[in-house]
Specification:
This protein is mainly α. It contains 9 helices and 3 strands. It has a 3-stranded antiparallel sheet with strand order 1-3-2, with no helix packed on it. A hairpin with a 5-residue loop joins strand 2 and strand 3.
Length: about 190
Amino acid sequence: MVMTTNTTHTTNPINATDGTNTQAGTTVVPGGAAVAENPRLDFAKSAPKVFRALVGFDAAAREGLDPALVELIQIRASHLNHCAYCLHMHTNDARKAGESEDRLHMVAVWREARHFFTPREQAALALTEAVTRVADAGVPDDVYARAAAHFDEQELAHVLALILTINTWNRVALSTAKVAGTDGRG
């Protein structure tokens, strides 16, 4: 996930013929709404070394993992954290990578729709939920054991790292009031 300029909702007009902004300092989001610059800090500009380190951690976490699994993990954590910015970004990335609409719609209710997901994906989704909600009950032994049965140690370490990075990205986006649809990736 790469974060861009912070924005927040407004009712600024948009040029009806080409969809461009009619006022400076606004961005058009999917659906044609305009959003103005956010009064909260731009994390990437305010802490560039921290931001670059997080981008590097995220990139390292993904190494060797199936891109579809990466997106499923990021989508589920974003659901749990109520991060619309990241959810919008990762569902779009998943679609562009060929993920089906059916599976994307079922991620939030994967336990009731297990037939949409492989046992390996189910194990990763369960671990994502446990780590994301770690304060609720820790990471139960059965959840960890199930993940360990589907991933070798290196893969499991990368899955855990990915879960940690998306939870961090969610917290950055929520803390800085990032607005869904403003990541510039459509």
